[in-house]
Amino acid sequence: MILYELVGGEEHPYYRNLEISNLNRQYDFLRSIVQTAIDVKRPFLSAHIIKALNCQAITCLHTNAGEYRPCPVKVGKHKPPEHYRVEALMEDFINEVNRNWENTDPVYLSAYVLWRLNYIHPFINGNGRTARAACYFVLCVKSNGWLSGDTILPELIRRERDRYVEALRKTDKSIRDGELDINKLVILLSELLSEQLKELSVKESK
Q1: What value does the mean pLDDT of the chain take?
Q2: Of the CATH numbers 3.30.750.24, 1.10.3370.10, 3.40.50.720, 1.10.3290.10, which one belongs to the domain with range 3-66+80-205?
């Protein structure tokens, strides 16, 4: 069953209901895989984890859930790399993240993961949900535990969509200008993470 084809679009209530259910399952899976990575002492990102996060997000909503896209896509003004380059680009990206795992600030590395996955846009659908979840995976594993809160970072990023999209565009522009600059994204994540942890601190103090 592929609901997008059955109901004709993403605005249909049945699609929306399953989308929300999938997202909740994705967060449950994300929490489990964070703890498992810490328990088995495998603190790194992998293609399998990223594909699994996408599968959780879009299963039964779209074709090719958890698989790299087999066709070109366009996202607003951004034209992601051609589909035949995706696998190699993802391999290079994951290797780069893991090479820099130990010596890179958690928020900076998470911001890089968030931007790069959106830039490559490796899946048919659910790229934003997958990027935000992968970003949080990196942040939590590097922090040696699940970072709790009433509203976790992926949801706070969704809430600040306009700022988030603008930060992604600024980072894309920096690449075209010849030097990667993800500072706007780092600032946004730092601010939202502080909000999440502050909310938790206030709740625990009551």
Answers
A1: 94
A2: 1.10.3290.10
> If you search the block for the tokens 């931007």, which residue do you land on?
115
Cα gap 95→88, rounded to integer Å? 11
Q: Cα torsion at 109, 164, 26, 33 (round to 10°)? A: 10
Asked if 135 contacts 114 with a C-beta cutoff of 8 angstroms, the reply is: yes
Q: What residues does 75 pair with on adjacent strands?
A: 78
- Give the pLDDT confidence of 92-117 residue by residue, as tens digits: 999 999 999 999 999 999 999 999 99
Flag whether the pTM goes above 0.85.
yes
CA distances from residue 53 to 22, 28, 49, 72 in whole angstroms, order as listed: 10, 10, 6, 21
Query: Per-residue pLDDT tens for 165-181?
Result: 999 999 999 999 999 99
DSSP one-letter string for 3-59: HHHHHSSTTSHHHHHHHHHHHHHHHHHHHHHHHHHHHTT-----HHHHHHHHHHHHT
φ and ψ of 82, to 5 deg: -60, 150
